[in-house]
Specification:
Number of strands: 0
Largest sheet: none
Distance between the termini: 33 Å
Strand content: under 5%
Number of domains: 2
Helix content: over 70%
Radius of gyration: 24 Å
Number of helices: 12
Structural class: mainly alpha
């Protein structure tokens, strides 16, 4: 079997394995009483990860360059990164809900690369002069790994919103910042909601009227309380999402800096406001705002999850949206 045939088997095989794995994770979420599904999901992700790694290695041997020069190769590298970050996040959180969110995205990426891209875009081609550099491996691989980590972290934030039904909840995890929002905003809200009869009596005795007490209780926010299991799961998702995004952000920073150095070597300018560069900066700013809100402002729960969800779509625009329009120095070309 030659390397081209092996690549064809591996790309189709990785898609099939990820599709089955997605069904396993979804079935496990729908029927939690089936314990054997909890072991099949991670096993499927490991097999898919190895298949994609084998595909990229075969591509490297066949083409003679690091397989990150076109859209087909970068899509599979992204899928490999997502499955790798998934395995780390799932092993850390011990929650199979991670796979419910990440498996369909990884499967969709491989399906798009295998079934939708024209054969001409899937074939290896000689590198253009600008790509014949060691920076191809150093810059693009770091950027793709950062995209994978940011996507997984954002997907877990979306899962958090689903689990909590978009409510504001009080979390106790170690990922919560120490800013004023936690200690003031959430603490005061919790005090307002947990006014006891004794406190009400004290207030009544101090001001001689029940009006203030009644107004305080009437104006308290009405929160639908979640079960302890759901709150524990939400806390885990929030914690892992924050940590994975915290991994992806420095990778994105390093990737942007490496790209600027490479651009200066190739085109004589560190920054040219190419569409890809502009959206990479927007992506960096979105997740910098996320980390700033969590670390210095003490945000937790719904608000940073909404910000991370926005970041998920911004990453896709940065990675794929500006590339397929056929414009800019980073274009993969128009293929629709």
């Amino acid at each position: 079997m030659d390397l081209v045939t092996l690549q064809s088997w591996l790309d189709n095989g990785s898609f099939a394995v990820l599709f089955i794995t997605m069904l396993i994770y979804w079935s496990g979420a729908a029927f939690p009483g089936m314990p054997y599904l909890s072991a099949l999901g991670p096993a499927g992700m490991v097999i898919a990860n190895l298949c994609i790694a084998g595909l990229l290695a075969a591509r490297w041997l066949d083409a003679g360059y690091f397989p990150l020069s076109n859209l087909y190769e970068s899509l599979f590298f992204l899928a490999w990164g997502i499955t790798t970050i998934h395995l780390v996040a799932e092993n850390t959180s011990r929650s199979r809900l991670v796979g419910v969110a990440t498996a369909p995205v990884a499967m969709g990426i491989t399906a798009f690369a295998t079934l939708s891209l024209p054969r001409g875009m899937q074939a290896a081609a000689p590198l253009v002069p600008a790509l014949k550099s060691n920076w191809l491996m150093m810059h693009v691989s770091v950027m793709m790994l950062s995209y994978a980590a940011l996507m997984v972290g954002s997907l877990l934030a979306i899962a958090f919103l689903v689990v909590t039904r978009g409510q504001n909840v009080e979390l106790k995890g170690s990922s919560i910042g120490t800013g004023s929002y936690r200690h003031n905003g959430y603490r005061l809200k919790q005090v307002d909601e947990l006014v006891t009869v004794t406190e009400a009596a004290q207030l009544l005795g101090s001001n001689g009227s029940s009006t203030a007490v009644l107004d305080r209780r009437a104006n308290a926010p009405q929160v639908e309380h979640l079960s302890p299991q759901r709150l524990s799961l939400a806390d885990t998702l929030d914690n892992i999402s924050y940590r994975v995004i915290g991994l992806g952000f420095p990778l994105l920073t390093i990737g942007i800096i490496a790209g600027a150095v490479w651009a200066n070597e190739a085109w004589g300018s560190y920054w040219s406001w190419d569409p890809k560069e502009t959206w990479a900066l927007i992506t960096w700013l979105v997740f910098a705002a996320y980390l700033h809100a969590r670390i210095t402002r003490g945000w937790q729960g719904r608000r940073p999850a909404i910000l991370a969800t926005t970041g998920f779509f911004v990453v896709w625009v940065c990675y794929l949206g500006v590339n397929i329009l056929g414009k800019g120095l980073h274009s993969y070309g128009w293929f629709f």
